[in-house]
Amino acid sequence: MADAQYILPNDIGVFSLDCREAFRLLSPTERLYAHHLSRAAWYGGLAVLLQTSPEAPYIYALLSRLFRAQDPDQLRQHALAEGLTEEEYQAFLVYAAGVYSNMGNYKSFGDTKFVPNLPKEKLERVILGTKAAQQHPEEVRSLWQTCRELMFSLEPRLRHLGLGKEGITTYFSGDCTMEDAKLAQDFLDSQNLSAYNTRLFKGVSQDGKPCYEVRLASVLGMEPALHSEMTSKLKSYEFRGSHFQVTRGDYAPILQKVVEHLEKAKAYAANSQQEQMLAQYIESFTQGSIEAHKRGSRFWIQDKGPIVESYIGFIESYRDPFGSRGEFEGFVAMVNKAMSAKFECLVASAEQLLKELPWPPAFEKDKFLTPDFTSLDVLTFSGSGIPAGINIPNYDDLRQTDGFKNVSLGNVLAVAYATQREKLTFLEEEDKDLYIRWKGPSFDVQVGLHELLGHGSGKLFVQDEKGAFNFDQETVINPETGEQIQSWYRSGETWDSKFSTIASSYEECRAESVGLYLCLNRQVLEIFGFEGADAEDVIYVNWLNMVRAGLLALEFYTPETSSWRQAHMQARFVILRVLLEAGEGLVTVTPTTGADGRPDAQVRLDRNKIRPVGKPALERFLRKLQVLKSTGDVAGGRALYEGYAAVTDASPECFLTLRDTVLLRKESRKLIVQPNTRLEGSEVQLLEYEASAAGLIRSFSERFPEDGPELEEVLTQLATADARFWKSPSEAPSGQA
């Protein structure tokens, strides 16, 4: 059997998202709006399979074929008759649920591959004897032959997502290196093109020079079209001795489905902002234009306090090894009014709280653009995973001038709160009950501060295309050097493009640090209803949770490549290092032996030293983070951040050794079952499923009732068309499904 870190355990936690009451309170029109937005999100989410690994679309198509013909209970009878044990069949269900939940065969949180926890030969016997294989023998056999080796392979390069020799990615062709990624980013910057909706494919031209295809995601391809802002970009370029060809049409049939449902949603929009937002999204996905998506995002920001909230597009760049390309995601959610009222109070206090942050006023935005901040119950969240909170859009220029929205996902947080005492690792016994009691409330506070005042704070110093600066070069002084500002962002440069591989993690670290720093503010705690001893317990558990998370983060570090696979967890490890460096016994991490005789560890936080020792250390660190970000000082930022992110076996902590202990005692991330909506006549019904691997599978089996087989054919055809860019599955027969 495979190493435990590459399988999903049979007892993995599976939880259902509860949104029944929020959905019940929607009007018929709001339900129709939510339904069509949900359909658009689910269709678009299929693109993530093509953004993850070469084999993911084939695995998805195979599983969907199997479970459409026989539901999990029916398939169980067949599997047991073929010789599988109950444990092996459960392992197969968990694997299938994992593929659906992560939209591929790599974990969304950590980018680690997971494989079926049963013998390949046994699984083959089951698959080839299923009802699906009897109905469509050639298609099922072809799908299995295409993906079976890669489904199980754990050769070193395939264990993690990454670029070149570091791992596998389908954002880039298999022969691309980090140098190619940097060159392509410089090219995109030179043409004022965003990388968010692109993939990069490398070849060699007839004259022997490197040739790169920058392919934009769009419904339209390269056929002659009416002039738009994108058509002039679709051509060949020479750049630094290489050929670049900008094309479009990536994921075209999938995006066509997205556009169709966005068009339908427009008929049920609540106001003109929503109508114009959807019109621009349609333009963006049709033409391949990020500028159109930005325009749509402006209307989205202006749409304050909607009953049905949503966002859709190529959004988060965590899984691009270079940190610039966005994974498709779409969410639809309904407002939770009680928690939203607390967030509104936090927003009202934001300008005052921003003054508490440890950097000079010149390093803060000229004007705080009051954002929406709502707590939402998720109806639909497509993509590779579901976050607890969101601060979007990610476009730097919009965030600086138009603002942003903050979203806390209440029913997702409720799943995150669910903690079993016996599975609570690395804490002292006397801390466990306190942790369980206050983890939820402290997480509400941390998410609120992280999203609103973490991601929502700080200014980028920019020189625009006309040479004008958005700061006073004469009077603004760098507090770290005492000198005038020496560096800034040029026209076309963004935070992601400039800081690339560390951008996401660095920004998450800054936001997490702001949350820890400001949770010490009594005004903040009063907003959330905590005073006196309760307030002190919330602070303690919030800091304790961060310190523990820093230790748990070691699961996501790869010693062989000295690299981190998850931005948020790298950020938490960095904060742990900062607090350990503060000394004076604030934080200790001690190797121990568990009651089972195996290696263990204990994290201790001295609550009496949080303010006198922890706060000043965090203050110094936060100021450095912000100054380096504001000034675009990539060299200084990398030196600071990568220094803290280094994992060694130096005493006293011996983190590399502790990593083995963390892996030994790790708990797999929970799987989340989401509902479906179904249009019956003019009414929208909510379909809910049990909290189990089988329930999660059923939710996906019923997700595309009208066109499931067609979608699977589309996915495999798209994967086959690009198979030549990776060594496997290069033998995939054309047009299979």
Question: Your description of this structure?
Answer:
This protein is an alpha+beta fold and 737 residues long. The strands form six sheets. It has a five-stranded mixed sheet with strand order 6-7-8-10-9. A four-stranded mixed sheet has the order 2-3-5-4. A hairpin with a 2-residue loop joins strand 4 (236-239) and strand 5. The longest helix has 26 residues, at 429-454. The protein is globular, with a radius of gyration of 25 Å. The protein starts with 13 loop residues before the first strand and ends in a 16-residue tail after the last helix.
Compact description:
By secondary structure, this protein is an alpha+beta fold.
Mean residue pLDDT:
94
Low-confidence stretches: 728-737
Largest sheet, in brief, is: 5 strands, mixed
Strand content: 5-15%
Protein name: Dipeptidyl peptidase 3
Cofactor: Zn(2+)
Keywords: Acetylation, Aminopeptidase, Cytoplasm, Hydrolase, Metal-binding, Metalloprotease, Protease, Zinc
Binding site for Zn(2+): 450, 455, 508
